[in-house]
Design goal:
heterodimer, A: 76 residues, 3-stranded antiparallel β-sheet, 2 helices, B: 147 residues, mainly beta, BH3618-like, globular
């Protein structure tokens, strides 16, 4: 991993068209501004981890559950 | 196309019903093809999202608008391009459901719905920017709130 030191207001460039700017530092929080083309997705890593975890939890043993039982649960 | 399913055994699915997930589903990036199984036209909003080549990978999904009438996911151009959407009317949403032992506690993921281009059968799981949605909405409670 490349590690760089930057000060507020300074930026780094990734490739030709991604810019990451340090906007401000307050205590243990750092505000970052990112300029990137619209087709580059930018997501907080912990959110992706949470979605992965929820998906893994959602895999069902289809022999244990019937859609009819779920429908009935809705009507209660 | 024959699908091998743990529950349904071998079932035949017309090729055109296969939904391509070019990026997979988070945590299951290696699975690129799924089918929806369930009775169409039934009043049951739950359906199976079943992997075509992996008999063990199967999700329950639900039409999110059934229990959250004011659901309004915002989809950006990046997603529309990736799904090759020409007409926004072709877009469908499905939420993956987590079913605990107590079925009445089931939750649906409104933060990262499955977005489908129904015309071309291309889909992806999208993580929304909307702060109001989470990965676990209690389905029965949401229904009561909306009633």
């Amino acid at each position: 991993m490349l590690v760089l030191s930057r000060k507020p207001g300074q930026s780094i460039l990734i490739g030709d068209n991604i810019e990451v700017q340090i906007i401000e530092i307050q205590g243990d929080q750092i505000r970052i501004g990112i300029s990137a083309p619209r087709d580059i997705s930018i997501v907080r890593k912990e959110l992706i981890d949470e979605v992965k975890l929820t998906n893994r939890e959602a895999v069902v043993d289809s022999s244990r559950i019937s859609l009819e039982d779920l429908r009935k649960a809705l009507k209660k | 196309m024959i699908i091998n399913s743990k529950h349904f055994g071998h079932i035949e699915i017309p090729e055109k019903e296969i939904i391509r997930f070019p990026y997979g589903i988070y945590g299951f990036e290696y699975i690129k093809e799924y089918v929806l199984l369930g009775k169409v036209g039934d009043d049951n909003p739950f359906i199976w999202l079943h992997a075509v080549h992996n008999p063990d990978v199967c999700f329950v999904v639900i039409d999110p608008f059934v229990f959250k009438k004011d659901y309004s996911p915002s989809i950006n151009d990046e997603v529309l391009n990736k799904l090759e959407v020409e007409d926004p009317a072709d877009i469908r949403f499905l939420s993956i459901v987590v079913i605990p032992q107590d079925v009445s506690r089931m939750t649906a993921n409104l933060k990262s719905p499955i977005v489908i281009n129904a015309k071309k059968n291309i889909a992806m799981q999208v993580i929304l920017d909307d702060e109001e949605y989470s990965t676990k909405h209690h389905i029965l409670e949401e229904m009561k709130k909306g009633a």
